[in-house]
Amino acid sequence: MTGGTPRIGVITFPGSLDDRDAQRAVTFMGGEAVPLWHADHDLRGVDAVVLPGGFSYGDYLRCGAIARFAAVMDEVRAFAERGGPVLGICNGFQILCESGLLHGALIRNRSLRFVCRDVFLRVETSQSVVTSELTAGETVEIPVKHGEGQFVAREDELRQIEDQGLVVFRYASPDGVTDDATNPNGSTDHIAGIRNARGNVVGLMPHPEHAVDPDVGPTGGQPLFASLLAAAIAGVNA
Description:
Elements: E1 7-12, H1 19-28, E2 32-37, E3 48-51, H2 71-81, E4 86-89, H3 91-98, E5 105-107, E6 115-123, E7 139-146, E8 150-152, H4 155-163, E9 167-172, E10 191-195, E11 201-204, H5 222-237
Parallel strand pairs: 1-2, 1-3, 3-4, 4-11
Antiparallel strand pairs: 5-8, 6-7, 6-9, 9-10, 10-11
């Protein structure tokens, strides 16, 4: 951290397309965005890491399945094990699941169609690096844009996720009601984002980086990035 400003690393994989948007969101919210490359062996001393959306390595196998072997992911795993804040958005969420940093997997939307629209997310916990500025039960409006965003997990994994309170966000109505009409991809239990047990690693399919600037749409992403910056600062001062 330089001069009290948290440094947030944003990793670019071949095929990433929301890396610049994530960098801009970090800067917009008061952080310093640090570009990182998939082949890097050094996170350059950043205070938090963002894995952005896109089509890493063309998603030619399974989404995120090739990216998990990128050199930088060894550093991300070590960083996460030390308690460093890690956020995976859309393709980044898929990479975290493929890497074993989060439970479950993301498969084709139930409709078999690409979905692009604003959705509401119900906050399930404030115990994560992206929800410390939020309260369980409130909703935020954030866009989704994906073709493979249906969250699934083995029965034992799903039981663990629910029993341990690892769900961070669920797709819901503006007043927090979950039903099929508000679930854009058919995700199990309306799950839009989850965390690890420690709460320092979070993945979600919606795009908070596209929801920080009031000039272009909803601002539901602001508290998520504010929380991430707060977690980065807390980690430095710990």
